[in-house]
Specification:
Layout (H helix, E strand, L loop, with lengths): L2 E4 L6 E6 L2 E7 L9 H15 L14 H11 L7 E2 H8 L3 H9 L12 E2 L13 H11 L7
Helix pairs in contact: 3-4
Length: 150
């Protein structure tokens, strides 16, 4: 599976692709430098996002299937600088908020599918990336998330 390391303010991430879609983004110190037009685009777009020149990603992503696909598509629809709650997405999908939280935690493509934009009804909720909630707060502040009280 082709992979590329990308430097970010949160540390290096490795982006993977398969079948013409981005299938993963994980924090990793392991260097990867595969040559691929799609990975070139992903690196360029992530670099632009962190430089403050990009507010949306235009990449073919693996959204998964079933319930997880529904949650990931709902997350991907949240605009830059905005948030939704687990409960709002749960109501839309007619599912328990806890299941939405579990699907968010299982997101294999964080940042690109913005699980950091999903909050608890009375707080930030969790974040499964290294750094946990502090990483989520960094991303939300980077985006100037509307109404964020942190």
């Amino acid at each position: 599976m082709p992979a590329r390391s990308v430097s970010t303010p949160l540390g290096p991430v490795v982006v993977t692709e398969e079948g013409g879609r981005i299938t993963g983004l994980r924090w990793s110190l392991v260097e990867a430098a595969d040559d691929s037009a799609l990975l070139d685009r992903a690196e360029e777009q992530l670099t632009g996002y962190f430089a403050g020149t990009r507010t949306a990603f235009d990449l073919p992503l693996d959204f998964g299937t079933g319930f997880h696909e529904g949650v990931r598509r709902a997350m991907a629809a949240i605009p830059f600088g905005h948030t939704r709650t687990y409960g709002e997405i749960a109501a839309e999908l007619k599912a328990p908020a806890q299941a939405v939280g579990q699907a968010c935690a299982a997101n294999p493509v964080p940042i690109l599918i913005p699980c950091h934009r999903v909050l608890g009804a009375n707080g930030l909720g969790g974040f499964s990336a290294p750094g946990g909630v502090e990483t989520k707060v960094f991303l939300l502040r980077h985006e100037g998330a509307a109404g964020l009280l942190i």
